[in-house]
């Protein structure tokens, strides 16, 4: 965890500095190429998960208990997890649903997950959240994804989720953040989805993750639940 300040008033993570060292190479890639390059170079630097420190066991202990409980409360029977990453932390979690669909933009991750985790009620596919049609599901789980996309791609992803007909969106937000800033896709910054340019309404539920990165500056990191029909139309 770095200590340098940023334009959003929080310390940047070491992964941000690593990303910036590869900025020129990443700027030449499309969305799929950006995340494939990050995967191949392990730019997020976790020894446990290629999906980064936020996907390690210690970082997900609380939400592994809270997500299944939330799904039960809202009657969710099918989940589309986009992006699913390496499926490491969810592989030890019984979501209590009838079907799970995991998708990622990196083909090698999808193939790994198919070989190791696929089952009759669990399948994995290659999918770009910003443009590819999502499968039918009650809920889209979109953890630690939008924070890596530029504003244009976030809007595209949210339009795609709305067009899918899914009922609920459970996604990462930082409720105490005062302003959202744009970044190059593949970089990272916190987002408060209730602020401009997204202007989400109050969420139905919030699961505060207990994030310990950033020396406590990201303690508000949360998964928040919204009814997709309640989200604003984004141009």
From TrEMBL:
InterPro entries found in the cross-reference section: SAM-dependent_MTases_sf
Official protein name in the record: Methyltransferase domain-containing protein
Taxonomic classification: Bacteria, Bacillati, Actinomycetota, Actinomycetes, Pseudonocardiales
């Amino acid at each position: 965890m770095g200590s340098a300040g940023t334009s959003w008033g929080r310390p940047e993570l070491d992964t941000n500095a690593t990303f910036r060292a590869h900025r020129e190479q990443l700027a030449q890639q499309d969305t799929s190429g950006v995340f494939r390059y990050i995967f191949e170079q392990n730019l997020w630097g976790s020894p446990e998960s290629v999906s980064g420190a936020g996907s390690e066991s210690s970082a997900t202990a609380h939400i592994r208990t809270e997500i299944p409980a939330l799904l039960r409360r809202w009657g969710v029977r099918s989940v589309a997890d986009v992006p699913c990453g390496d499926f490491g932390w969810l592989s030890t979690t019984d979501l209590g649903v009838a079907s799970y669909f995991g998708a990622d933009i990196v083909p090698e991750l999808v193939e790994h997950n198919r070989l190791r985790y696929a089952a009759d009620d669990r399948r994995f596919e290659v999918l770009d959240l910003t443009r590819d049609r999502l499968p039918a599901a009650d809920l889209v789980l979109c953890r630690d994804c939008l924070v890596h996309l530029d504003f244009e791609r976030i809007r595209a992803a949210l339009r795609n989720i709305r067009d899918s007909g899914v009922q609920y969106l459970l996604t990462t937000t930082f409720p105490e953040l005062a302003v959202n800033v744009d970044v190059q896709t593949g970089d990272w910054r916190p987002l408060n989805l209730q602020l401009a340019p997204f202007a989400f309404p109050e969420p139905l539920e919030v699961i505060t993750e207990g994030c310990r990165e950033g020396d406590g500056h990201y303690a508000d990191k949360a998964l928040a639940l919204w009814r997709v029909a309640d989200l604003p139309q984004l141009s």
